[in-house]
Amino acid sequence: MLKLTPEAKVGMFVLLGVIILVYMSLRIGGIQFGKGEGYEIFVKLPSAAGLDKDASVRIAGVEVGRVKDILLEDNKAKVIIRVHPDVKVGTDFVAVLKTKGLLGERYLELIPGSPNASMIEHGGEITRVTTYTDMDRLVGQLSEIATDIKAVSSSVSSVLGGGEGEAVLRRIVTNIEEVTTNLNTVISSNDEKFGRMLTNFEEFSKLLKDKSPEIADGMKNIADNLNQVITENRENLKGGISNLKSASVKLEETMETLNKLAKNVEPKIDDAITSIGGAAKKVDDTASSIGNVAKKIDKGEGTIGKLINDPSTHDNLNKTLTGINTYITKADQFKTFLGFRSEYLFGAGDAKSYLSLRIQPKADKYYLIEVVDDPQGRRKTKTTETTTGGITTTTKEVITEDQIKFSAQIAKRFHDATLRGGIIESTGGFGVDYYLFNDRLKLTLEAFDFDKKRNPRVKTAATYNINKYFFVTGGYDDVISKVGGESLFIGAGFHFEDEDIKYLLTSAPIPTR
Question: Could you give the CA distance from residue 307 to residue 150 in angstroms, rounded to a whole number?
């Protein structure tokens, strides 16, 4: 009957608790086991750089599905999406490839369209795609903008700069001054004319008084005749005099109105002339400022001038953006995996556990660090002497003890095969992994602990990935052992990427009182 040590029982209990915690966290986070629920649609993108399988699909920032697979079709990336069954995607939805922050993971954003649009059925395609400008294209556009700015500054400099532009501005100011002078002259001329008219009336009245007596006799006869005419037409004259009085009153009122109008108009004309002079000065100052700025830009002074005229500034900007793009690409490729697996050894009747950390800077290269709890780590020979009937019998028994071991390996992948080597279970060794069925099945051969007394420890195994997180394994350990350490084994385990671990830590429920 199989007996478990207290340490093995505690280990199995802890493993069971970890599996339950991981399962509950994944269920709360909405991660599906096995074949996920929902329906599948696809979208074709010009480039799916940085987008991985099982990446998030969001609508208005809310996750509604995951990327199931990414294929190459007609020189485009065909992205197959599994959408939750309760989410309906319309035919006018727009697919956009976005990034969480500057160095975050890539995900697919679906922008809704009209609520009355028909829905995409299972296996349908999202035909509308929007792509954002990448770094290289952004550098090209900045270069074109700098060229346009330089052309505009050259045009402004050619129009307003130099003697010809200054002459045009001076002629404009001179014309404004001439207009104001003519207005002032017209007003002054009218004042003199009114003065001369009054003077002529006064001279004419004096001339009548200084005439000769003959003119006086004639005037007397005229007066007698006028008196006779007046006597005969007294009533008519009275009416005419009344009319003259009325006319003179109206004439006086008209003159007063004209005087008031002239007084009101004169300040306004002065203000207009002053405003025109101020505006002309502002135009002159503005033109001078624009000319100075254009000359400085053309000479390469200031930030804009250096950006336009100094090739080194453009080259440095291009190098900086290229470096940022390279850094983002490398950061996107860098991944870290944390895993755990347990293998039950039928020969030892105990479990062997592995806690692993895989650091993967590139897709075809990684570093593997493991802590191994081996129930057959130490082997001791126990000698027992038994005396029966005067005969002593010596019995030797091999006893195995639990031991903690360490592994540190470097691995390089070539197509479907991976070669790795370094320290395996605290001894030197190497291993070969061969992948089948799109990396779902892995065949492994390891050789380490090259001890002549017990032969090298050779281990063969086959590992099948149930999904992205969980896997099962089985094989034969210590195949060519001389000390009876060979054993069949089966086991299971899980591994999480750094983004998955961060998601678990942030989405795990927090107990509250």
Answer: 9
For the chain, which domains are there? 37-132 (no CATH), 160-304 (no CATH), 334-507 (2.40.160)
The 39-45 sheet, strands edge to edge: 125-126, 39-45, 76-83, 62-73, 56-59, 106-111, 94-99, 128-130
Residue 92 has which token pair? 């006018």
Angstrom distance (rounded) from CA 143 to CA 49: 25
pLDDT band at 259 (very low <50, low <70, confident <90, very high): low
First to last CA, the chain: 45
Q: Which of 45-59, 123-137, 245-259, 343-357 is predicted least confidently?
A: 245-259
> Tell me, what's the pLDDT at 1?
45
Q: Which residues contact 498 (CB under 8 A, 6 or more apart)?
A: 335, 336, 337, 338
pLDDT class of 234 with cuts at 50, 70, 90: low
Classify 460 as helix, strand or coil: strand
**397/310 Cα distance (integer angstroms):** 85
DSSP 208-258: HHT--HHHHHHHHHHHHHHHHHHHHTHHHHHHHHHHHHHHHHHHHHHHHHH
For 206-216, how does the pLDDT look when each residue is reduced to its tens digit (9 = 90+)? 665 565 555 55
The DSSP secondary structure of 146-172, one letter per residue, reads HHHHHHHHHHHHHHHSHHHHHHHHHHH
